Automatic annotation (TrEMBL):
<feature type="domain" description="S1 motif">
    <location>
        <begin position="319"/>
        <end position="387"/>
    </location>
</feature>
<feature type="compositionally biased region" description="Basic and acidic residues">
    <location>
        <begin position="655"/>
        <end position="670"/>
    </location>
</feature>
<keyword id="KW-0689">Ribosomal protein</keyword>
<feature type="domain" description="S1 motif">
    <location>
        <begin position="151"/>
        <end position="214"/>
    </location>
</feature>
<dbReference type="GO" id="GO:0005840">
    <property type="term" value="C:ribosome"/>
</dbReference>
<feature type="domain" description="S1 motif">
    <location>
        <begin position="232"/>
        <end position="298"/>
    </location>
</feature>
<dbReference type="InterPro" id="IPR050437">
    <property type="entry name" value="Ribos_protein_bS1-like"/>
</dbReference>
<feature type="region of interest" description="Disordered">
    <location>
        <begin position="96"/>
        <end position="116"/>
    </location>
</feature>
<dbReference type="InterPro" id="IPR035104">
    <property type="entry name" value="Ribosomal_protein_S1-like"/>
</dbReference>
<feature type="region of interest" description="Disordered">
    <location>
        <begin position="655"/>
        <end position="680"/>
    </location>
</feature>
<protein>
    <submittedName>
        <fullName>Small subunit ribosomal protein S1</fullName>
    </submittedName>
</protein>
<feature type="compositionally biased region" description="Acidic residues">
    <location>
        <begin position="62"/>
        <end position="71"/>
    </location>
</feature>
<feature type="region of interest" description="Disordered">
    <location>
        <begin position="1"/>
        <end position="78"/>
    </location>
</feature>
<feature type="domain" description="S1 motif">
    <location>
        <begin position="491"/>
        <end position="561"/>
    </location>
</feature>
<comment type="similarity">
    <text>Belongs to the bacterial ribosomal protein bS1 family.</text>
</comment>
<dbReference type="InterPro" id="IPR012340">
    <property type="entry name" value="NA-bd_OB-fold"/>
</dbReference>
<feature type="compositionally biased region" description="Low complexity">
    <location>
        <begin position="48"/>
        <end position="61"/>
    </location>
</feature>
């Protein structure tokens, strides 16, 4: 049979190529290699498939008489032999068609091929195995291979490293190929090393095994993280960067979040100092969905300290003196490190005296000796004391401090009822507001005292057993009320300073310790005030007259309007009831209005009596005429009404109209009466004349 062109037939990668157009010797060699490939090539599913495929290719080439000549591509064959990879590269072959006569086909031509069966094909060569032998061979071949499933992590052996690629032996039908860059975590990868890889596909479109070293690392890292979260095991990671609120740590190729509060047991300010460090962690939180985890280094430290804490607490006794280091200071106290366990030193246990803040005495990292006051083994709480190492100040208080003695101290606390003065650290006395001044004027302790100022005082009472002391400032001076009758006689006039204002009056200080009150009604004869602040301000000087003195109760009544004569004696004649006056509205509310009358007198008008003729209510600063409807001299009260004035004007106008109408009616009546009389006389004369005429008529008849 004559063949002009050869058709290229490419088998799957890893399978040897055969040419049915080669010489008889080449064909025989190819047939043997095909049989060997069936038994050893890892990319073939079954040996029979290769034989069948080769036979089909040969038959196809035999029946192709006229096909275009083309180059046969180069292919790689990877065979496994004692972990050695032999790559056989078949060079490009281009042969011209050779005419073969019938003698050649029968095998009678060629001295070297006289005994070769030219009719034998790959199919016939494979037929030398029986079905049972073939099944046994296939079974033995499959048993020698490792079972591989996709999406699983497998162990592989490095077979070779060639040109930046790593060939991996998984004892499977084909080897795996990965770039060397995926093994950067291994310092020196060598042939024979065992590594873990992730099987992505058993066979891709090219028949190759698809692996991933990176995914295997990530899955193993996630398994370790889950194990740490479930069982509390320790994992190692490297801090790679700083982020908001903490750090990012690489734990076996998987990034995790390390919160700032979980870095150490003490507060951390400089996060940058930890970048690049390799640390141990415990996983405290995981998210299976996004494969994310939160780790803690603090948890490891706390677990280590827990054993030390248990040992220290077991050996604690009340009253025991320990050395501690101040690790944190707060508003309510300080936390001390006692060598693995923390104790709290409350601010009240730092000093016998009052302090505003623990930092007034303590500093961070300061070593101090403290006494164990109390501890709770269950809650792991230890209460410490610093002042307990010193004797109580009351126990060593100077014996010369007795009742009646004068002392000086610092104001350490101010309350509404008085101030506490510290005589020496831990010894305080109370100055009650009633002991500040001899005056009965109310004292505001927060305005009189200032924290930190020094004040002299007299000891009124002292109780060393109860550790209490009462002090007095006013008793440092003589009592001015003993001479009150002589210095402040009734009706005497004095000038004082306004010290305080209340809704009902003004407190005036005449001299140190002596003062009295002006009632709001005694400020003015003519004006009414809603509050004393409308008349006077705190700090103003004001003249007063002494109205009354109560020596027993230390009270004095003062007056300001009494400095002038009482004008109400005259007002009774000026503003009698029913009189009309011009008034200006000063202020008003929902109930009434205050109006300014002549001579500076203020009067009150109910709101309903301030309605004008047009029906509206008079406004502030509006001037109008009012009628006095009430004058009370005793109560000094004047009540007026604009409505009454309007009504009076209306009534007066109505009366005037009525009077004019009556006068008009009277005038009309008089005219009518006069007219009636005149008409009556005329009528009687006419009757006489008529009678005369009537008589003449009768005579004529």
């Amino acid at each position: 049979m004559m063949m002009d062109d050869e058709k290229d037939t490419t088998l799957p990668e890893g399978t040897p190529e055969t040419s049915t157009e080669a010489s008889a010797e080449t064909e025989a060699t190819t047939q043997a290699e095909t049989t060997e490939a069936v038994a050893t090539a890892k990319t073939e599913e079954k040996p029979a498939a290769a034989a069948t495929e080769a036979t089909a290719a040969a038959d196809t080439n035999d029946t192709s008489d006229e096909e275009e000549e083309e180059e046969k591509p180069t292919s790689k064959i990877i065979r496994k032999d004692a972990s050695k990879v032999n790559v056989v590269i078949t060079e490009e072959v281009k042969e011209e068609g050779v005419e073969i006569d019938e003698a050649d086909q029968s095998g009678t031509t060629g001295e070297g091929h006289a005994d070769f069966n030219w009719n034998m094909t790959s199919r016939s060569a494979a037929s030398r195995y029986t079905d049972q032998e073939r099944a046994d061979l296939e079974k033995a071949f499959d048993a020698s291979m490792t079972n591989i499933a996709e999406a699983e992590i497998m162990s592989a052996k490095v077979s070779s490293i060639i040109d930046g690629d790593v060939i991996l032996d998984l004892n499977y039908k084909s080897d795996g190929l990965l770039p060397l860059s995926e093994f950067r975590d291994q310092a020196a990868l060598q042939v024979g090393d065992t590594v873990e890889v992730y099987v992505e596909q058993q066979e891709d479109e090219k028949g190759q095994l698809v692996l991933s070293r990176r995914k295997a690392k990530l899955l193993r890292a996630w398994d370790r993280i889950r194990d740490s979260y479930a069982n509390g095991t320790v994992i190692t990671g490297k801090v790679v960067s700083k982020t908001k609120g903490g750090l990012i740590a690489d734990c076996g190729g998987l990034e995790t979040f390390l919160p700032g509060s979980q870095i150490d047991i003490k507060p951390i300010i400089d996060y940058d100092a930890y970048v690049g460090k390799t640390m141990e962690f415990k996983v405290v939180k995981i998210n299976e969905t996004i494969k994310n985890a939160v780790v803690s280094h603090k948890a490891l430290i706390e677990s280590d300290l827990a054993e030390q804490r248990e040992a220290i607490i077991a050996s604690l006794e009340r009253g025991q003196v320990l050395e501690g280091v101040v690790k944190n200071i707060t508003d309510f106290g300080a936390f001390l490190d006692l060598g693995g366990v923390d104790g709290l030193l409350y601010i009240t246990d730092i000093s016998w005296g009052r302090i505003n803040h623990p930092s007034d005495i303590l500093e961070l990292n300061q070593k101090v000796n403290v006494a164990v006051l109390d501890f709770d083994e269950n809650k792991k709480r230890i209460s410490l004391g610093l002042k307990q190492l010193l004797p109580h100040p009351w126990e060593v208080l100077d014996e010369t401090i007795t009742e009646g003695s004068t002392v000086e101290g610092k104001v350490v606390n101010i309350e509404d009822y008085g101030a506490f003065i510290e005589i020496q650290p831990g010894v305080e006395g109370l100055v009650h507001v009633s002991e500040v001044s001899w005056s009965n004027q109310p004292i505001n302790a927060r305005e009189y005292f200032t924290v930190g100022e020094m004040k002299p005082a007299k000891v009124v009472t002292i109780d060393r057993e109860d550790r209490k002391m009462s002090l007095s400032i006013k008793q440092l001076q003589d009592d001015p009320w003993t001479m009150i009758g002589e210095n402040f006689a009734l009706d005497s006039v004095h000038t004082g300073k306004v010290k305080n204002l209340t809704p009902y009056g003004v407190f005036v200080e005449l001299e140190d310790g002596i003062g009295g009150m002006i009632h709001i009604s005694d400020l003015s004869w003519t004006k009414r005030f809603s509050h004393p602040s409308e008349f006077v301000k705190v700090g103003d000087d004001i003249q007063v007259s002494v109205l009354e003195v109560d020596e027993n109760n230390r009270k004095m009544s003062l007056g300001h309007k009494q400095l002038e004569e009482n004008p109400w004696d005259t007002f009774e004649n000026v503003f009698p009831e029913g009189s009309y006056h011009e008034a200006t509205v000063l202020r008003k509310d929902d109930r009434g209005a205050i109006v300014q009358m002549p001579y500076g007198l203020e009067a009150y008008a109910p709101i309903k009596l301030m309605r004008k003729e047009d029906g509206t209510i008079a406004e502030v600063d509006e001037t109008l005429t009012v009628k006095v409807i009430e004058f009370d001299r005793d109560s000094k009260r004047l009540t007026v009404s604009h409505s009454r004035y309007v009504n009076d004007i209306r009534k007066e106008a109505k009366d005037q109209v009525y009077k004019e109408e009556k006068q008009e009616r009277d005038d009309t009546r008089k005219v009518m009466k006069k007219t009636s009389s005149s008409i009556e006389r005329s009528t009687l004369g006419d009757l006489s004349a008529f009678e005369q005429l009537s008589g003449n008529d009768d005579d004529e008849k």
